Amino acid sequence: SSSAFPVAPETEDKVQLVENYLQHFYNLETDKQSRFKNKNIKTVTEKLKEMQAFFGLKVTGKPDVDTLEVMKKPRCGVPDVGQ
Amino acid sequence: YVLTDGNPKWERKNLTYRIVNYTPDMNQADVEKAIQKAFKVWSDVSPLTFKRIYDGNADIMMSFETGDHRDNSPFDGPNGLLAHAFQPGNGIGGDVHFDEEEYWTKGSNGYNLFFVAAHELGHSLGLSHSTDPGALMYPTYSYIEPNEFHLPQDDINGIQTVYGPSDNPVKPTGPTTPGTCDPKLTFDAVATMRGELLFFKDRYFWRKHPQMTEVDLNFISLFWPNLPSGIQAAYENVERDQVFLFKENKYWVLSGYDLVYNHPKSIYDFGFPKNVKRINAAFSDENSGKTYFFVGDKYWRYDENSRSMDQGYPKKIINDFRGIGKKIDAAFQSGRYIYFFIGTRQFQFDPNVKRVVSVMKSNSWFNC
Q1: Quick one: which of B200, B202, B287 has its CA closest to B244?
Q2: Across the interface, do B81 and A80 touch by the CB < 8 Å criterion?
Q3: A58 touches chain B (CB under 8 A)
Q4: How confident is the model at residue A2 (pLDDT cuts 50, 70, 90)?
C-alpha cells in the first residue's frame, strides 16, 4: 500500500501547526480570505520564509525541524508582523 | 527593536495602571510586586512614570483571562500563547491580558509573571517584537532570574526612540546580544557535551551539533535556571557523562543534561590552593582520565580516577604547551587535538608533536 495515503496524522498535525502559526503571527490569509487557493499555497512558503528570517533560522520556506521547534515554543500572542 | 506600525505612543508621560484581577497561582503581594517591577523596567530608562490606581479606568488595565475573552484574540490553554497586550490608545489600548490557564510564578518554574509582564508592557508602550534573540521584546518566552535582569540595549534603544531618554542624568545601558559571526567574538568557556560543543558567553551559550551546520543561541537560564551567567571554565567527563562548570571559586555539575542539586560546590574540593580564586579554562583527556585546569600562566592536572590533583603541579603552561600563552579563555579536546581559545583566536594544539598546528578564528566552528 502506498505510504502517501492516508496522510500520516503527524504530517497533518504539522501542516495545521504551521498554518495556525502563520495565520496568527504572520498575517497568512486563511482559505476563506484568499480568493485563489494556489496563491494561498505560495503564500505559505513566503510567510514561512518571513518567519524563518525573523527568528534567524535558515530560510528554507519548508517546515524543517528547527522551524517547528520554534513554533512550539511558548510565546507572546501579539503578531510578529503587522497590526 | 521594532516600533509598532503607525508609531502609536502615549501623549502623556505619567500613565496609570490597574490590576483588575489576580491569578490563584501566586499570592496577591507577589503579583503586585512582579507587575510593579515590570513597570520599573521601562520607567528606569524613559521619561515615563506609572501610577497604580485601584478602581475605574486606568491607561493600562492588567487582567488574567481565559480562552475567548471577547477581544478577538482568544487564549489557547496551557503553554502556547502566554499573554498579549494592545498598543497605546484609548479603551483597550495599552491593556495587558495574561492567559490564566498558564501556571504563573515568581520563580523559574511555570511562567515567570514579572518577565512576561515586562515584555507585554513593551507592546503597551508602542513596541513590536524584536528580532534580537537577547531582547526582552523577542517573541518567545525565556526565563531570566529576575534579580539578574537588566533591560537589554535593544529594548532601551526602542523605548527611547518612542519617548526619548529618561530624565536620569546617567545614561542607562543594557546588555547586548553577542553576534554569532562577529569577528570580535570571544568565549568565556567551551566544553563538549554528549557529542555536541557548548560555547559559553555572558548569559548565553551556543550549541553546535557535529552533523548540523546551524548553531543555535540559547539563554543559559532557559536550560539551567540555577546556573549563573558568565561561566568561566567548563569540561566534560565523558566517562561519567558529566559536565563541570566553573565560576569564581565555585563549580556546578551537569549529569547528562540535568543540573545536579546541592551545587555549587567549592573548587578547593579539587585540591587547588586557596590563592586560586577562579579557573580560566579546563579540558579533560578522555583516554588518560586526566583533567587540565588553566589558571593565569599555570596549569594543574587532576586525576579523575583517584579524584585528586597530581603531584608536581602547578606547572608553567608555556613549558608544556608551546605556543599557548597565558590567560586562556577556554579549552576543549576533540580527537587528537586540544583547542585553546585566547581572545578572537583559537589554537589547535597537537599533544603528540607538542606544538600548535593551526590558528583559527575563535568562532570558526560556527560556519560563518
Answers
A1: B200
A2: no
A3: yes
A4: very low
Nearest to B221 by CA among B279, B158, B175: B175
Sign, Cα dihedral of A22, A26, A32, A37: negative
Is the pLDDT reported for residue A59 higher than 80? yes
Rounded to an integer, what distance in angstroms lies between the CA atom of residue B219 and that of residue B213? 20
B-contacting residues in A 35-54 (Cβ below 8 Å):
54
pLDDT tens per residue, range B316-361: 999 999 999 888 999 999 999 999 999 999 999 999 999 999 999 9
Please give the Cα distance from A59 to A73 (Å, whole number).
Answer: 18
What is the signed CA dihedral for B340, B342, B345, B350, rounded to 10 degrees? Answer: -20
Helix H or strand E segment including A73: none
Contacts of A46 (CB under 8 A, 6+ apart): A61
Residues B35, B19: Cα–Cα separation, whole Å = 9
Which residues 6+ apart lie within 8 Å of B245 measured at CB?
Answer: B189, B191, B200, B227, B231, B233, B234, B251, B252, B253, B254
CA-to-CA distance for B191 and B187, rounded, in angstroms? 11
User: Which residue reads 511562567 in cell numbers?
Assistant: B111
Pairing of strands B315-316, B298-303: antiparallel
Indicate the SS3 state at residue B307: coil
- Report the sign of the C-alpha dihedral through residues B292, B294, B297, B298, in that order: negative
Q: What does the alpha-carbon distance between residue B249 and residue B233 come to, in Å, rounded to a whole number?
A: 11
- CA-CA distance, A66 to B240, in Å (whole number)? 30
Choose among A25, A54, A74: nearest Cβ to B82: A74
Q: For residue B260, how far is the Cα from the chain centroid?
A: 19
CB count, 10 Å around CB of B217? 18
Report whether B155 contacts B38 (CB < 8 A): no
Q: What is the pLDDT of residue B327?
A: 85
Q: What is the DSSP letter of B268?
A: G
- Nearest CB among B85, B139, B214 relative to A80 is that of B139
- Distance in angstroms (rounded) separating the CA atoms of residues B143 and B132: 16
Point out which residues pair with B333 in neighbouring strands. B338
Query: What are the angstrom distances between the C-alpha of B106 and each of A22, B27, B32?
Result: 31, 10, 11
Instruction: Kindly provide the ipTM of the predicted complex, given to two decimals.
Output: 0.82
Residues 6+ apart with CB under 8 A from A16: none
